[in-house]
Design goal:
Strand content: under 5%
Structural class: mainly alpha
Distance between the termini: 53 Å
Shape: rod-shaped
Order of helices and strands: HHH
Oligomer: single chain
Radius of gyration: 24 Å
Length: 76
């Protein structure tokens, strides 16, 4: 596990320590959970975007700019 050093205002760190203590955790645990959430959301969004792209490429969508008519859509 790696260490990370950040620079923040002393008063902010003190308030964060108090709030973490009230919640029965630590500032370190709060930051770790936030970073896991931050990275996880991005990975999920990237995977979802890749799936949409893959599906769009494999679909029978029109790439010539024309539109499907209502009857053509319902035929499918």
């Amino acid at each position: 596990m790696s260490n990370l050093t950040i620079t923040i205002d002393d008063a902010l760190l003190q308030r964060a320590r108090i709030r973490a203590l009230q919640q029965g955790t630590s500032v370190n645990a709060v930051l770790r959970a936030y970073l896991e959430s931050y990275v996880g959301a991005s990975a999920e969004q990237t995977a979802a975007a890749a799936n949409v792209l893959r599906l769009s490429e494999s679909s029978q969508a029109r790439h010539d700019g024309s539109r499907w008519s209502r009857s053509q859509l319902y035929e499918r």
